[in-house]
Records
---
Amino acid sequence: MILVRDDKYIKIERKFFKNHSNLISKYASVLKKLQKNHFDESLDTHKLGGKMNGLYSCSLNYQYRIILSIVVVEDKLYIVDVGTHEEVYKA
């Protein structure tokens, strides 16, 4: 799988790690797992519904989530958001 991070996400990512630099190595590990198998059991990847229908969420850790869009046809994972449960599931 190819991980795709657009300019909007890169801005979100920078802001997130400005406040959570202690999670950088964990994040790198999660990204590697996503590339290898985006449904790895340890990631708790699951489909979202409602306003986020069509997107998936996986765990960075207990408190933080990564939101992504999986395009299997093109073998790409588009990372959409990273943050606390409340931040990423906002309307």
---
Amino acid sequence: MGAGSREAVHQDYILRMVQQFSGFLVRVLRLRKEGKTEEALALLSDAYGKLAGLPASLVHALSEDDLIVLLRAQGRLDPERSLGLAELLREEGHTYDDAGRYEESFPRYLKALRLYLEILGEDEDLAETRIPGLDDVIEQLAGLDLPPETAERLLAYLEDAGRFDQAENLLLQRLDAAPDDRAARDAVVRFYRRLLAKSDAELIVGGLTRDEVVDGLQRVDDPVS
């Protein structure tokens, strides 16, 4: 099967997943708008078993790493199952946000993000496929501390997608949290040096200018020669 055919298959199953979930998510959204948080949560909890094949209690008890290990028990992630699980976690996170229960929404957004990124990394043909919900959870988690594995995967995704300003923010956030961490500083330096190999047009589309990249590099390393 050629690359174009494989990409079409990926687009097809993502479309099927969206169609499968659309009616269900409309019901959840209606309950959220009506302020019926507990009813919405009950509906979502029940859906874990029906749509993702895992009990909600198990999903929430596992760490991001352990959840991925479980989903890989048969070798590869099932993209449709994993994407459905990510969508449930994301929607549950929003429902907890509606109730002001941010300590409950945060771990759900984290697991959703990790699942989205794992799905993208599973098959190179998915790299060009738009994953519903990914940008949403990235926005929800902006500025917050992420587990190292998730942060590394997110950084790679943002850079590969040409979203250089967001990748820069993630790296500088890590450096600000540990200014004496040489590894964090070196990662920023390598990032800026990679960007200097890009064209001016690529940098601008990615949210940065060449002058900003040069200035950033000068702040964390020796002046550019």
---
Amino acid sequence: MHKNSQKRYYIRGAVYFITTVTKERYKYFCDEIFVHVLVEQIYFAQQLLQFQLYAYAIMPDHVHVLIQPHDGYNYSKIMFSIKKQFSHNANRVMGYNPFPDYENDEMNIKLQHYRDKFLKKYPSTCPYPRFLWQKSFHDHIIQNNHDFHNHVGYILHQNKKHGTHGVIWVE
């Protein structure tokens, strides 16, 4: 185990509040294109990995999600999937990663659309460095209904707390 690794506790049926941060807190999510790509990735992962999504907040440099994994995938695998695929997709949109020639699925069609919007917005040079997340993420096991509602409230108040116009969704 890596010396900085957190000990993860997997409890069947538990709900988790998770926070993940961009590398060096770079504010990629001030750009709505990256917000849209991340939202697409969250919902794609939800369909693929079958977890309950209760809420999320996308702030300029970090993301909060409130999820409940179902059988088959724990929250570490869910976050790995979301973070890895979003990184690839964001870097495709910025032109750092190529689009695979053989893939013409719905996600790649959407990504090509975002790439076109990105090129219209930034026609000459990409203003962003390659997208990376900070290693790992912070997690909290929801203890009871009161704790659940506190964390939903925390997500709802992220814009006020950070003085930004992040994207917030609550089921």
